[in-house]
Design brief:
It is built from 4 helices and 6 strands, in the order ααααββββββ. By secondary structure, it is an alpha+beta fold. A 4-stranded antiparallel β-sheet has the order 1-2-3-4, with helices on one face. A two-stranded antiparallel sheet has the order 5-6.
Length: 205
């Protein structure tokens, strides 16, 4: 759920910044690209499959581009140490601040969604005793013009074997129950069934 934004946006920006820092701080043109290549290769061995190697080459190329950019600017303009420190701080902030916002926004949005679902269920005349658990998670494919990407899964006390999904509509800013449920392991369906006592006939398909 977090992987795609990291691979497509955060890691490329970090690779470029590491390239700039490697040349600016350590005066070595290819030190940072070597570090980026090594860390990316380690990430592939630990977390990703062989198809990630294409991204290793992209990140290494971006690190080289960062090193060459810093090399050219330093050789051309000869900035003072204070100017270099300021530029590095701005560059780090431009990458790290969005990265932190991205990382921290997920648990915040999850907590907010949990509260919204609790409020929705109270309006449906459920009490806290009727609810066993509410768990939230991020699902990127749900982030559309219609729905927000955080899904809540609810288990009711009198129906412990079934899980009910809830999602928030963007334009209407309200929580609704989804028709989707897991019929068998890793097989989801959107069919209404009376076998699920808390399922709404007007659930969201």
């Amino acid at each position: 759920m977090y992987v795609i934004p990291l691979v497509l946006f955060i890691f490329p920006m970090l690779a470029f910044v590491i390239g700039v820092l490697g040349r600016s701080l350590f005066k070595k043109l290819f030190l940072a690209p070597a570090v980026v290549f090594g860390l990316s290769l380690l990430a592939q061995l630990l977390y990703f499959n062989s198809s990630f190697f294409m991204w290793i080459l992209i990140y290494t190329s971006l690190a080289i581009a960062g090193s060459l950019t810093a090399h050219f600017l330093l050789r051309t303009y000869h900035p003072s140490r204070n100017v270099q420190k300021t530029a590095i701080s701005i560059l780090l902030g431009a990458v790290l601040i969005p990265a932190l916002i991205f990382v921290l926004s997920r648990p915040v949005n999850a907590a907010l969604m949990e509260k919204k679902v609790e409020k929705h269920l109270r309006l449906e005349e459920y009490s806290t005793r009727d609810i066993t658990s509410i768990e939230t998670f991020y699902e990127g494919k749900r982030n559309t013009n219609r729905t927000k990407p955080v899904i809540a899964e609810v288990v009711f006390t009198d129906d412990p074997h079934h899980t009910y999904r809830y999602i928030e509509l963007k334009k209407e800013n309200r929580v609704v129950q989804m028709c989707e449920y897991e019929r068998s392991p890793n097989f989801f369906t959107n069919e209404y069934t009376a076998e699920r006592p808390h399922m709404k006939k007007d659930c969201l398909e």
